[in-house]
């Protein structure tokens, strides 16, 4: 049974909004304090001092930013609830009860309909009995019955509106609950790292947290909060490249894949993954067995280079690479461009296995555009080698931007 008590609900919304404003102000002050501490390059010296400042910068500032983003989203959700509540029931002390509408009101309308019909029939019977003496037109209850019909529709509509209101905003608040659970996981995870010795503040380096699952979740939240403000040439391109690099680094790629399979979003860029990409991410978690199966299945395509269908982003292209070549191994190395006429000559353009038998590399040419090349010599060279190109949307400028990031 649904009940809408507009005064109580509006009062609760107002109280929560006031609390959010206070917490936002407190966290903003805390953020400024930490930023000031982190910038103490000249007065907080030494390796330990640098480690401590780095710890606050990497572990605390992203959390504060994510929590402030959460508070902002919560505030917007409450504002929308308040606005739509005004449309649902404008009266300040309005009270809507589903059981009253579905029970008492509908039964009352039914009783009214029966009473009106009975009275009309009785009156018309009397008029008919005297029509030989005096003709009077019969009474019509059509307008009353039409009003009762409209009242029934209004009752059903109100109940439906209450259910839609409840479903819509419950769903929105459930999404916010997922966000706060992510933040809680991060809070709980960091002390555990200290207790187990995985994280020491006095000797902290950013890499100690960067690849932890909870930290990747946090980075996803931050990415989502700024993704709508970016242009194709903005830092989202760098995050996309960074996401690709993580995919091909041993161990870290599997952690990232785990986050992606669980959340359905790229852990670095925050982009929602296609269904097939999420499956591929799941494949990476289990050691690449599915990837290897796909790899074997593609051997029958034919000789020479195979050009796959173009995908939208570099991120999607490297996800396909991960499935086709699997894990390059713990000792994989950066791969540098060998073609003198290429912009990537002498620069890092990809990665290769320690034995040099399989590699991937970023490339561009006017015919295929931006793409990733796969060269797999594990079954031998010549006719036994596999060469696959995965094109993605972009131009030479896109290639140069990604190349620049790979060589930072």
From TrEMBL:
It comes from the Bacteria. InterPro entries: LXG_dom (IPR006829), PT-TG_dom (IPR027797). The keyword Secreted applies. It holds the Pfam family LXG. PROSITE patterns: LXG. Residues 1-235 form the LXG domain. CDD domains: CdiA-CT_Ec-like (cd20692). Keywords: Secreted. It is found in: Secreted. GO terms for cellular component: extracellular region. In the N-terminal section; belongs to the LXG family. This is T7SS effector LXG polymorphic toxin. It comes from Halalkalibacter oceani.
């Amino acid at each position: 049974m649904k009940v809408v008590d507009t005064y109580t609900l509006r009062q609760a919304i107002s109280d929560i909004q006031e609390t959010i404003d206070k917490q936002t102000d407190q966290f903003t002050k805390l953020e400024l304090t930490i930023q000031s501490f982190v910038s103490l390059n000249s007065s907080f010296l030494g390796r330990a001092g640098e480690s401590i400042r780095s710890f606050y910068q990497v572990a605390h500032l992203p959390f504060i930013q994510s929590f402030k983003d959460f508070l902002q989203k919560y505030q917007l959700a409450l504002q929308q609830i308040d606005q739509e509540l005004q449309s649902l029931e404008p009266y300040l002390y309005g009270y809507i009860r589903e059981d009253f509408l579905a029970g008492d009101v509908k039964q009352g309308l039914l009783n009214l309909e029966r009473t009106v019909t009975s009275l009309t029939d009785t009156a018309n019977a009397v008029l008919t009995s005297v029509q030989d003496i005096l003709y009077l037109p019969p009474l019509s209850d059509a307008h009353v019955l039409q009003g009762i019909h409209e009242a029934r529709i209004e009752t059903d509509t109100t109940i439906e509106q209450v259910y839609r209101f409840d479903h819509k905003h419950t769903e929105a608040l459930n999404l916010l609950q997922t966000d706060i659970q992510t933040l809680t996981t991060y809070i709980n995870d960091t002390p555990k790292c200290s207790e187990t010795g995985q994280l020491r503040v006095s000797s902290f380096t950013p890499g100690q947290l960067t690849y932890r699952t909870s930290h990747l979740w946090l980075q996803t939240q931050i990415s989502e909060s700024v993704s709508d403000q970016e242009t194709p040439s903005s830092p989202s391109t760098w995050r996309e490249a960074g996401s690709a690099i993580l995919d091909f680094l041993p161990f870290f790629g599997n952690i990232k894949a785990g986050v992606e399979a669980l959340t359905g979003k790229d852990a670095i860029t925050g982009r929602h993954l296609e269904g097939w990409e999420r499956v591929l991410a799941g494949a990476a978690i289990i050691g690449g067995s599915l990837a290897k199966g796909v790899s074997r299945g593609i051997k029958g395509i034919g000789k020479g280079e195979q050009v796959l269908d173009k995908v939208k982003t570099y991120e999607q292209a490297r996800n396909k690479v991960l499935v086709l070549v699997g894990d390059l191994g713990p000792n994989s190395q950066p791969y540098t461009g060998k073609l003198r006429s290429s912009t990537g000559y002498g620069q890092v353009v990809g990665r290769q296995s320690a034995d040099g038998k399989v590699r991937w590399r970023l490339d561009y040419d006017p015919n295929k555009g931006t793409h990733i090349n796969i060269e797999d010599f594990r079954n031998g060279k010549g006719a036994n080698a596999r060469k696959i190109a995965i094109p993605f949307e972009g131009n030479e400028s896109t290639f140069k931007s990604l190349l620049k990031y790979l060589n930072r």
